[in-house]
Amino acid sequence: MSLEFIGITVAALLTLCIYSFLYKDNPFYKFAEHVFAGLSAGYYVGLVWHSIIKQQLIGPLFEEHQLLFVIPAILGLLMFTRFVPKIAWISRISLAFVVGNTAGIVLTQQLHGLVLPQVRNTFTVAMNFSGIVIIVGVISTLIYFYFSKEHKGALGVVAGLGIWFIMISFGASFGYTVMARVSLLIGRAQFLLINWLHLIK
Questions:
Q1: H or E element in which residue 162 lies
Q2: What is d(CA 187, CA 191) in angstroms, rounded to the nearest whole number?
């Protein structure tokens, strides 16, 4: 019995344990769920240690002697004060730095990567049927979120049209999500029937 066959069998049994939830919640599903959560947490801890702490902190600090990295090291250590109730408030310094820095980076990325390109593309679309639909959809959706005036009359009609565009967008996103899950299901079914049971060649 090869290690490859053992690995495939374990993966197949865990897959069946996960799909047993379709019947009802049971110990097999909980076991597979806990195994997955534990392996994911362990893998993530190892990944953070090797790719972030060792490469981006310990290496530059102790090998390249870049003393500026003392600041993130101190901020990281302050995060562990959460485990000491009397000084847990100190961890807020690190959390505030992380939240503020992340918010600034994400807002800039979203502005330059999504908002501005979408605004530019909206004003530069070709004036054919698709372009008109895009312009009408953008304007009506924005008017729907305009709450300073009650949606009555012509404003209400345009806002109602915006609701239709929003629902179509949500429906398309939901359909895409469902198709992605169906693709995962097909992949698992192929794994069970081809790689494990060898019923299909």
A1: helix 153-190
A2: 6
pLDDT in tens, the chain (201 residues): 789 999 999 999 999 999 999 999 999 999 999 999 999 999 999 999 999 999 999 999 988 889 999 999 999 999 999 999 999 999 999 999 999 999 999 999 999 998 899 888 887 877 788 888 988 999 999 999 998 888 899 999 999 999 999 999 999 999 999 999 999 999 999 999 999 999 987
Residue 141: which residues within 8 A CB-CB, separation 6 or more? 162, 165, 166
Cα-based distances in Å from 127 to 140, 180, 199: 17, 33, 54
pTM for this model (two decimals): 0.72
| Beta carbons within 8 Å of 200's beta carbon, 6+ residues apart | 190, 193, 194
**Residue type for 106, please?**
V
CA 60-97-84 angle, to 5 degrees, is 90
The full set of domain ranges for the chain reads 1-65, 126-201
One-character DSSP codes across 101-161: HHHHHHHHHHIIIIIHHHHHHHHT--SSHHHHHHHHHHHHHHHHT--SS---HHHHHHHHH
Distance (Å, rounded) from C-alpha 159 to C-alpha 144? 4
